[in-house]
Amino acid sequence: MSERDSEGGLTRRSLLKTAAAGAVASTAGCGSILSTSSSSSLTRGTETAYGNCWQCHKACGMEVTLNEAGEATELHGIDGHPRGSAGEGTKGTLCPKGLSQLEKAYSPERIKQPHVRKDGELQKVDWDEAISYTADRLEDFADEYGPESLIEFHGWGTSGVFSTLFRNLYGCPNHVPHPTPTCFGSMAVTGTLMGLGGGNIRWIDYPNTEYILVWGRDPLESFAGQWEAKQLLKARERGAKIVTIDPVYTETAKKSDVWLPIEPRTDGALALAMANVIIEEGLYDEEFVEEYTHGFETYKEAVADKTPEWAAEKTGLAEHDGLGAETIREIAIGFAEAAPAAGITSWTGLGQSADHQKGAQNVVALTALVGNIDRPGGQRWHTSPPLSDPFEVGCEEELPNNAADNPCYLTDKESGYASMTGKPVQNRVPEMVDNGDVRGMVYYYRNPVTDGAAQEWLGTDEREGALEKMDLVVGIDAFWSETARKADVVLPEASQLEKPMFESGGYGAYNEHPWITGSKAAIEPQWNSKPGFEIVSELGREMGYEEYFPWEDKTEFINDQLEAVDLTLEELEQEHDTYYVFDDEQHRNPYEKWKGGGFAQGAEEFWFDLDKKLEGMYGKLSEQVGAEITTGPQWVEPGTIGDELTEEYPLEMLDTRTVEFSHGGDQALSLPLEQLAESYGLEHEDYRGNYLVIHPDQAGERDIEHGDMVTIASEHGEAELMAAVTEGIHPGAVSVEPYGFGRGSIQPDGDGANNMLLNSPEQIDPVSGEIDRHIAVEVSPGGDD
Ligand SMILES: Nc1nc2c(c(=O)[nH]1)N[C@H]1C(S)=C(S)[C@@H](COP(=O)(O)OP(=O)(O)OC[C@H]3O[C@@H](n4cnc5c(=O)[nH]c(N)nc54)[C@H](O)[C@@H]3O)O[C@H]1N2
Ligand SMILES: Nc1nc2c(c(=O)[nH]1)N[C@H]1C(S)=C(S)[C@@H](COP(=O)(O)OP(=O)(O)OC[C@H]3O[C@@H](n4cnc5c(=O)[nH]c(N)nc54)[C@H](O)[C@@H]3O)O[C@H]1N2
Ligand code: SF4
Ligand SMILES: [Mo]
C-alpha cells in the first residue's frame, strides 16, 4: 500500500515507486480549478458581455469578451460570485469544464439543424417544419396509445418548462427525474426518510468547520460550483482536519490529513464502529438525541458489538499499515470532539450501489448522534430567495391534464417497474418497451444509454435495443449521441453563451444568505440552433397550449420570476455583475432550522430507526433479497443485494467523474479530451477515451502496463478502454474515470468504454431504484488499439 507522509499525501519514495510501475498520478483537480480565463484564436476582444456557465449546471458567473464581429473570444470568472468564488472579496474563476464552453459554442461537432426522420433517414428541416411535425406526431401518439405510454427524461441542464409541457399539459405521468434513479438515490431517499434531507449530507458549513469527513466524494474534482472546492481548501488552510474515505486516491484524498482506502461498499461498517466509539466514550450530543430524535435505543443496540477491530476487518483497512482499529477510533473521537463544527460530505460514492442504502443510513445517523445538523461548522441547510412563480404571473388557468398527481401509472403495471419510492426505474424502461407499456420517449439534455443497462437501450448485433423499438423518440440535444442518431426528431439546442440564464440558491458561497444570478445571451445562437426555452414554448403553442406559453422569450420568463424581488435580468446583469446576495436580516438563513419540527418532510424528529411508517417496505426488501433487513441502522454485507465478487469476476468496478467532464455532456470537445489524456501522462497515445485505473498488483498479475488497451468484462457485457496503472486505488477495485464514454456517447471517434454495457436491468437498489455502478468484473489485456 502507499506510504503516506504526515499530510496524507504519497511520499516521494512511493511516488517514485509508482512511476517505476509505469504510473502517473492524475494532475487534474484543484490546481486547475484555479484557472481564471480562456481565450480562443479569434481576434482579441473589444466588448464585454456576461454569462452563467451551465456545463455542470451550477451557473458560475462569466465575463465574456466579444470581438468586433460579436464573437466570444475570452471567458473570465466574476469576483465574489456565489458559485464561482469562495465568497465576498474573493476571486471568481471558471473550472476546466467552464473554460471549454468557448469551444462548445463554436464546435463543429454540434447539431446544427433540426432533423426529422423521413423514409427511415434523419433529414434536415427548417424549424417550422420540425415543430409542426413534432406536435403532430405527439398528438397522434396520444390518440393512439395515450400520453401515459410516453416516458420523459430530462437532465440537470433542462429548462423547467419541459416538464410542465409533458407532465402537466400533455399528461405524461412517467418522468425519470433526478436525483432518485440515476444520481445518488440510496443516499437521497435515506437522508430524506431520516429527516436530514436528501441532499444535505453534501453541504458542510466550511467557513466554520474544524473537521471534515469526505466520504465517497471528491469535491476537489466533482464540486457543485467552484465555491465548494475553494471553501474546502480555505478550511484546510485554516487548519481544519480532513479525512477522505474512498477506495481511490482522489484529488481530495491527496489534500487530506488521512486517506482511508476503504474496500468499496463497506462504509456502513465503518460508520457503525464510529458510533460504537462515540457512544462508549460518551461523546454524543445527549441533548439533541433526547429531544430531537427517534429510535436511539435501536441504534445503540445495533452498534454495541460493532467495534473498531470488527470494522477494520470488514473494511479491509486492517490490511494497511497504520490504518486499522486505532485509526478508526481516533477519527471517531476527533469527529465527535470537533462537533458540532464537524461535517460529512458525501454524494455518489454512497449513493450509487444496490446495497448502499443501509450504508447511507449508518453514515447519516452519525450527524444526529454528534448533533451537527444545521449548526455552525456542521451539515448546512440552505434557503432560497422568495421568487415569483412565472406560471402564476404569466397565466391564470389551472394546468390541464396534470399528471403530477398520478406518478404510479407504470408502477401499478408490474412490481419490477418501480422502486419502493413509487418512481419508475430507469433500468427497467427497456423492459417496459418490450412489454408495450412504454412506446415513446421525449428527452432533453440527457443520454440514458450511458447511465445504466446500456445493452438493453442500444441492442446488440443480434437484437434491437429499446431506442429502435419505440414508436417515437424526440430529443432536444446539442451533440450526436447514439440516442440522437436513433431519434425520430432532433431539435438542436443553443449552448449557454447563446441564451439567457438564471439560477437562484441555495447552496453556494454565501451560506447565511440566499442569492440569485443571471445574464442575457452573450452571443447569437450558432447555426440553426435555438435556446431550449424557445423550443419548448414553440412546441407547446403548436400543441394547442398557447395560453401557458405567453412569454416572448426566456428573458420575459426570468423577469416574471424576479418580480417578487423587484429586479429585472437587465439590472441583475448590468448593475450587479450578474449576482445579487440578499444580505438583509429578513432573508438571513438561520442555523438550527429543525427547531419546531423542521426536519425533512416536515417531520418532528430525526429518525435513526425508520420503523414508524416503513415496516412494510423493509419487510418487502427482506423478502426480495432473502436476508433480514431491519428498519434500524444495520450492517449489510456487500453482495447481499448487489454483485458478489467471484473467481471469474474478482474485481469491483466503480466509475467516477473527473474535473474535465460533466457527465456525458462534453466528450465531443477536444480541450477536455486533451486535458484528460495529459492528466494520465498518456497524451502521446492515439486515444482520447476514458481510463481504467488499476493497481500495479492487479495489473502485474494480468500483464497489463500503463497505457495498454484492456477489456473489462462482467457477466452481462464488456467494453474496451486504456489502462492507467497506479497505486492510488484499493487493490480489489478498478475505477473507470470518467464514465460517459464509448458506445452511445458523443465522443466523435468512439474512443473509450461505455462501462454501463456491463450493467444489467436488475442491478438497482430496490429501495430507491438507483442504478448500481459497482459491478463484479475481470480485466484482461488487449482490445482495439
Ligand atoms: N455510468 C454512470 N452513469 C451516470 C452516473 C455515474 O456515476 N455513472 N452518474 C449519474 C448522475 S450523478 C447524474 S446527475 C446523471 C446526469 O446526467 P445528465 O445531466 O442527465 O446527462 P449528461 O450525461 O450530462 O447528458 C449528456 C447529453 O447531454 C447532451 N448535451 C450536451 N450539451 C447540451 C446542451 O447544451 N443542450 C442539450 N439539450 N443537450 C446537451 C449531450 O449530447 C449528451 O448526450 O448521470 C448519471 N449517470
Ligand atoms: N467534474 C464534475 N463535477 C461534477 C459532476 C461531473 O459530472 N463532473 N457532476 C455533478 C453531479 S450531478 C454529482 S452527483 C456530483 C458527484 O460528486 P461525487 O460523488 O464527488 O463524484 P465522484 O468524483 O464520482 O466521487 C465519488 C467517489 O466515490 C468513490 N466511491 C465509489 N464507491 C465507493 C464506496 O463504496 N465507498 C466509498 N467510500 N467511496 C466510493 C469513488 O472512488 C469516487 O472517488 O458531482 C457534481 N460535480
Ligand atoms: S463548476 Fe460547473 S458551472 Fe462552474 S465553471 Fe465549472 S462547469 Fe461551469
Ligand atoms: Mo448527479
UniProtKB/TrEMBL annotation:
<dbReference type="InterPro" id="IPR006656">
    <property type="entry name" value="Mopterin_OxRdtase"/>
</dbReference>
<feature type="domain" description="4Fe-4S Mo/W bis-MGD-type">
    <location>
        <begin position="43"/>
        <end position="109"/>
    </location>
</feature>
<dbReference type="GO" id="GO:0016491">
    <property type="term" value="F:oxidoreductase activity"/>
</dbReference>
<keyword id="KW-0732">Signal</keyword>
<keyword id="KW-0411">Iron-sulfur</keyword>
<keyword id="KW-0408">Iron</keyword>
<dbReference type="InterPro" id="IPR006655">
    <property type="entry name" value="Mopterin_OxRdtase_prok_CS"/>
</dbReference>
<dbReference type="GO" id="GO:0046872">
    <property type="term" value="F:metal ion binding"/>
</dbReference>
<dbReference type="GO" id="GO:0043546">
    <property type="term" value="F:molybdopterin cofactor binding"/>
</dbReference>
<keyword id="KW-0500">Molybdenum</keyword>
<dbReference type="InterPro" id="IPR009010">
    <property type="entry name" value="Asp_de-COase-like_dom_sf"/>
</dbReference>
<comment type="similarity">
    <text>Belongs to the prokaryotic molybdopterin-containing oxidoreductase family.</text>
</comment>
<dbReference type="InterPro" id="IPR050612">
    <property type="entry name" value="Prok_Mopterin_Oxidored"/>
</dbReference>
<dbReference type="Pfam" id="PF01568">
    <property type="entry name" value="Molydop_binding"/>
</dbReference>
<protein>
    <submittedName>
        <fullName>Anaerobic dehydrogenase</fullName>
        <ecNumber>1.8.5.5</ecNumber>
    </submittedName>
</protein>
<dbReference type="InterPro" id="IPR006311">
    <property type="entry name" value="TAT_signal"/>
</dbReference>
<dbReference type="Pfam" id="PF00384">
    <property type="entry name" value="Molybdopterin"/>
</dbReference>
<dbReference type="GO" id="GO:0051536">
    <property type="term" value="F:iron-sulfur cluster binding"/>
</dbReference>
<keyword id="KW-0560">Oxidoreductase</keyword>
<keyword id="KW-0479">Metal-binding</keyword>
<dbReference type="InterPro" id="IPR006657">
    <property type="entry name" value="MoPterin_dinucl-bd_dom"/>
</dbReference>
<dbReference type="InterPro" id="IPR006963">
    <property type="entry name" value="Mopterin_OxRdtase_4Fe-4S_dom"/>
</dbReference>
